Amino acid sequence: MAGDTLLKFVDRDQAYPAKRDAQARADDFREIAERYASSTAEDQAARCSQCGVPYCSVHCPLHNHIPDWLRLTAEGRLREAYQLSNATSTMPEICGRICPQDRLCEGNCVIEFSGHGAVTIGSVEKFITDTAWEEGWVEPLVPGRPRGQSVGVIGAGPAGLSAAEYLRGYGYDVHVYDRHDRAGGLLTYGIPGFKLEKPVVMRRVDRLKAGGIVFHEGFAVGSDASLDELRARHDAVLIATGVYKARAIKAPGVGAAGVVEALDFLTASNRKGFGDAVPAFDDGSLDAAGKHVVVIGGGDTAMDCVRTAVRQGAASVKCLYRRDRANMPGSQREVANAEEEGVEFVWLSAPQAFDGGDVVSGVKASRMRLGAPDASGRRAPEVDPDGGFSVQADLVIKALGFDAEDLPTMFGAPELGVTRWGTLRVDARSMMTSLEGVFAAGDIVRGASLVVWAIRDGRDVSERMHSWLKAKATNAKVAA
């Protein structure tokens, strides 16, 4: 049967879900592509070659059973396909939307190497789980047998939410602490709706709440409680805060009004989408409407900013990046989407100063050229002495990436060990920090990375914490 259903990549072309017209989608924050029809999803899944060594799974951080659920989809067995995709991921429909599949599963698809175009894995994954939600196949979170132990999770982003779900399934009382007024972290406030509509995130959070996980929203560790107080409150603590400290630009005029941080800009936009009152947006400070916008950076956050500015009605949007297109860290698909929506990319350029005095009016930039490879193997940018230019700007958005905040100071825990990059130092096997019973996972350990890696880390750390908590309970019984 599988032979009749699969291996259709030779006579069946690759087809992603159709994107809405660029002008139409630039007028709203809806996702830019519709979902597959069932027949189309089955046809595209049937292109899978079912290769002996599934490089798609190997290069997926979660090692999802991709060929298996593609086969089930091709055979019309969608409920089984969902159950299999859900077996390794707590958020398959979110990964299907925002993972850079072109660099992970699809980029390593065997039929992509043969010139036939990769299987559209992410779009099929999104289709499977969205269908499961609509059909009622997504089961409630059922807590495991009560263990009489509790866990505190600091941070309600993808790593924290993933770990909380697994730990609740093991039977622990789980409390999640987050400084924002909604759970989800960057899924909620950092990623725009045109990539990830917010009801998709909120239904996952609501499922966790219905499963008995207690969320303490608007709770800032360090001011509302110290880390030591949380350690006294719980049998184990997980730190999964992510990294939120914006990398700085050192240039004259950088402190002028109108030069803003990417996350401030994106959070304001997402809050407006929720209907919140956002004074800095309402007074125009974080609203791109009618402005000439310049975004500095070449990662996915920069792409989120340029495309958000377009939707807010910017007069023009330019992205300055110091390397060329081939060497940028962001998704090439996102660059293409941005170009379709009217964004202008100024490659091989870097800011040198910000004009305008108290209020920014432009960016002075240098032309760059690529020199010898740096330690990462990428060609290092260097200033081209013959090139310089200016760009008009009413709003400049800095999107240069994120570093770790000073958690030992913030949490009142100076003994919490960190690396030279400020990320938390953990034991490679146990994932425990320098403090007994305090674990860490996600970007706060590995540095700014992908959502799928945060989910993987949440899954891994929950297993380590489970083993440690079982041993702790056993030792307590022996001591008694």
From TrEMBL:
Q: Which residues form the Dihydroprymidine dehydrogenase domain?
A: 26-136
UniProt keywords (A-Z) are: 4Fe-4S, Iron, Iron-sulfur, Metal-binding, Oxidoreductase
Q: Can you tell which superkingdom this protein's organism belongs to?
A: Bacteria
Q: InterPro entries under this entry?
A: DPD_II (IPR028261), FAD/NAD-bd_sf (IPR036188), FAD/NAD-binding_dom (IPR023753), GltD-like (IPR006006), Helical_ferredxn (IPR009051)
Task: Report whether Metal-binding shows up as a keyword of the record.
Answer: yes
Pfam families cross-referenced by the UniProt entry? Fer4_20, Pyr_redox_2
Q: Which residues form the FAD/NAD(P)-binding domain?
A: 151-458
- NCBIfam families with a match to the protein in the record: gltD_gamma_fam (TIGR01318)
According to UniProt, the name of this protein is NAD(P)-dependent oxidoreductase
